[in-house]
Amino acid sequence: MSILPLGPIGPERPALRIVRGQGPFVYDADGRAWMDLTSGLMVNVLGHRHPAVERAVVRQVRRHAHVMVYGVWPAEIQVRWARRLKTLLPEGLTAVYPTNSGTEAIEGALKTAYVATGRPTFVAFEGAYHGETQGALALIGSRAYRTAFQWMEASVLHLPWDDPAALEAIDDRVAAVVVEPVQGEGGIRTAGSAFWRTLQRRCRDAGALLIVDEVQTGMGRCGSWWACQRLQVRPDILVLGKALGGGFPLGAFVLRASLAQALWATGQIPHLSTFGGHPVACAASLAVMRVIRRQRLIQRVQRLEVRWRRVFERWGQAYSDVLAGARGLGLMWGLVFHRPEQAEAFIQAARARGYLMDRPLFEARVVRWAPPYILTPAQVRRVQADLEAALKSLAGG
Ligand code: PLP
Predict the structure, then answer these.
(1) Average per-residue pLDDT for the chain
(2) pLDDT score recorded for residue 152
(3) Is the same domain home to 310 and 201?
(4) Residue 241 Cβ contacting ligand 1 at under 6 Å
(5) Does the CB atom of residue 129 touch ligand 1 within 6 A?
(6) Has residue 4 been placed in a domain?
(7) How far is the CA of 131 from the centre of ligand 1 (A)?
(8) 7, 13, 243, 245: which has the fewest C-beta neighbours closer than 10 Å?
(9) Confidence of residue 154 (pLDDT cuts 50, 70, 90)
(10) Per residue in 296-353, pLDDT tens?
């Protein structure tokens, strides 16, 4: 029997049958432990079965699960969650619209920008990834991923990444620019401060909204609650998902009050979703936010960034025959190999030592490095030694 979707695992790597998780580890059917250095792809920032998340979820399940399409009879947990989230948001973003996923939140952001500006065009970037429904798909900065499925006419202008001069193309036809602070699937690609400064200025001058997609970069991953704060970018709409739900499906787009009014002025419930803001996911999300704050995990991410930046620089020099360098922010890094086969060989060598790693969708030379925030100092040292041994085995030394 084949189970879909198993696509990204690929035929060359036999799929693991995961039966349980604990902390940073998942366990397969044979009882073997694997440390997941992707955090379930940026989701499990506290690892698996964090006691605070588990307690919150069980408590909520005992009270109620789904009640009503939100907004009609809002559940108390949803209101508490939205209030708590608001205290963490960049200034001026005061309306929270919950969804089930990052993709749905992107769709809500696009709808908002369209009705608020009345403009038909969107700008996205080469290498961008924003999800797979038709609107989000239109934004993807990879023709290979887009063309097979795109039957709707969508007017999206794709600009080169980290090219301040190209941003001159943002003009008064543009409803919004959609951007990731660090391109995840594009290969963990950061952009320079000139890019961010110019982007903010061009959006302001053209009257285009700035939609920042923090589905991967948010919830502390880049060393601040939201990466846009660190980059000193002020979004009109912020899109959240993945880690937000503590392992449960939850997304949100958060926006300025005036934009929320424009959305509601359409006269319909503008972005209806039966399960959006599910009470159990909201309970898990509240617990994750509380643990990150109480355990000062964002400061921990910052400290670990300093450590790993040094390690990656040293590896870049010591193993320059295979490794071209590393790039990233916080605990979101890409190890850049000279050739895709080297990246794949590194993943296999890491796997032989008990680690799960992967490659971003659009960049086969890069290996993603995004551990949960909760590794102990001993685990950090162990990961470093084991991955260096894996690199050494590639470099033939
Ligand atoms: N935006 C970014 C940057 C993502 O990485 C993803 C998913 O990987 C999405 C949006 C879509 O989120 P979801 O898969 O929860 O729909």
Answers:
(1) 93
(2) 66
(3) no
(4) yes
(5) yes
(6) no
(7) 5
(8) 7
(9) confident
(10) 999 999 999 999 999 999 999 999 999 999 999 999 999 999 999 999 999 999 999 9
| Distance from the alpha carbon of residue 132 to the mean position of ligand 1, in angstroms | 8
| pLDDT (0 to 100) of residue 73 | 86
Evaluate: CB of 130 within 6 angstroms of ligand 1: yes
Q: What is the pLDDT of residues 11-59, one digit of tens each?
A: 455 578 999 999 999 999 999 999 999 999 999 999 999 999 999 999 9
Structural domain boundaries, residue 66 = 52-294
Side chain identity, residue 111? K
Pocket test for ligand 1, best of 129, 182, 226 (most atoms within 8 A of CB): 129
Cβ of 371 less than 6 Å from ligand 1: no
- Does one domain contain both 124 and 61? yes
Q: Which of 139-153, 170-184, 192-206 has the lowest mean pLDDT?
A: 139-153
